[in-house]
Amino acid sequence: MIDIEEKGVRIAAGFELPPIARAEFERRLVVQDEDDAPTGPDTSPDTLVVGLPLRVDEPFLARLPASVRAIATYSVGLDHVDVDAVRARGLALFNTPAVLSNAVADHTMLLLLAAARRMTEATALLRDGRWTDMRSNQILGIELAGRTLGIYGMGDIGARVAQRAAAFGMNIVYHNRRPARNEAGARFISALDAFLGASDIVLLAAPSTDETRNILDRRRLAMARDSLIVVNIARGDLIDDDALIEALGSGKVRAAALDVFRDEPRVDPRYLMLPNVVATPHVGSATEEARRGMAATLRDAVIAWRRGERPANRVA
């Protein structure tokens, strides 16, 4: 645990801050390890910084010191936070939107290209000493130009992916509950089944909610185009794992590229055994720029909140 202080502002970190984040806090704040921090009523933290996989629910909140008046999550996603419980206790809540969008959009394109060009299979040929065809006919992928990318969840990240995909010559459609304010040149499809039927590649970019969990199940995969590519940079529980693995085996789904999984850091081992799966360990936002920016966003939000302002990233 860490105390962070600037002119009376104190924050306790409920998880180990990455070094690059700690350095960013230290630009304006004094950072002390808990063992070295002073104790007493005037030195108690009033904000708790949390991060995945910590679950912020009512039992967790009930154990907080009385001094804590705000929660700052080192993430844009809020599925690990019981927002209603935070509000019920009158706590402020901050997250880190927008600052990590470019990093995640870049990683999404990496996943999309890796799935289209069968990168898992191609690197296995080299590692296993099975590359025999100098004309490279052993691994034939597909091109992105002219394909239709369907974005399920057109938020800031989805819009930035759409901009990048357009540069590859892709057609872009999206599905939200309502048309997005920033469509990034994409076409809105209101019916989910029609959206799936129009997409060669489906990108899952929506938050995990009661409405979106298991959105890609057997019934919906059956409605999708044959040889679909599935990319997930949202949350693992948007996918019915059994249904997707079955579709990957049958060829209904050509390939899947996954950066997120249920019950992280545990990964369903079946995914790692399939040659048509590209998998990365939830590193969509793992760039120096994004992680530094996330810390700066929370730091500035807490300072602004203490001044009586309402920062744009205040959720509750």
- Label the structural class: alpha/beta
What is the level 1 CATH name of the largest domain?
Alpha Beta
Please provide the count of β strands: 13
- Mean pLDDT reading: 91
Q: Which CATH architecture of the largest domain is right? A: 3-Layer(aba) Sandwich
CATH topology of the largest domain: Rossmann fold
Shape: globular
The CATH superfamily of the largest domain is identified as NAD(P)-binding Rossmann-like Domain
N-to-C CA distance: 24 Å
User: Treating each run of at least 4 consecutive H or I residues as one helix, how many helices?
Assistant: 11
Number of domains: 2
Task: Give the SSE layout.
Layout (H helix, E strand, L loop, with lengths): L1 E5 L2 E5 L5 H7 L4 E4 L13 E4 L7 H5 L7 E4 L9 H6 L3 E3 L6 H16 L2 H9 L20 E5 L3 H12 L3 E5 L11 E2 L3 H7 L2 E4 L13 H6 L4 E5 L8 H10 L2 E6 L10 H4 L4 E3 L8 H19 L10
Parallel strand pairs: 2-4, 4-5, 5-6, 7-8, 7-10, 8-9, 10-11, 11-12, 12-13
Antiparallel strand pairs: 1-2, 1-3
Compact description:
With 316 residues, the chain is α/β, with parallel strands linked by helices. The chain has 11 helices and 13 strands. Strand 11, helix 9 and strand 12 form a beta-alpha-beta unit.
What attributes does this structure have?
alpha/beta, 11 helices, Rossmann fold, single chain, 2 domains, 316 residues
Your description of this structure?
This protein is α/β, with parallel strands linked by helices and 316 residues long. It has two domains: 118 residues, Rossmann fold; 179 residues, NAD(P)-binding Rossmann-like Domain (Rossmann fold, 3-Layer(aba) Sandwich). It is built from eleven helices and 13 strands. It has a seven-stranded parallel sheet with strand order 9-8-7-10-11-12-13, with helices on both faces. A six-stranded mixed sheet has the order 3-1-2-4-5-6. Strand 4, helix 2 and strand 5 form a beta-alpha-beta unit. It starts with a strand and ends in a 10-residue tail after the last helix.
